[in-house]
Amino acid sequence: MRRTERYPVKGSTSLWQIYKTVSFWKVAKCFIVIEIARYTPFLSMKNWLYRTFLKMEVGEKTSFALKVTPDTMFPERIKVGCDTIIGFNTTILAHEYLVNEYRLGDVIIGDRVMIGANTTILPGVEIGDDAIVSAMTLVNKDVPAGAFVGGNPMRIIYPKENKASGGPDTTK
Question: Does this entry carry the keyword Mitochondrion (predicted)?
Answer without folding.
Answer: no
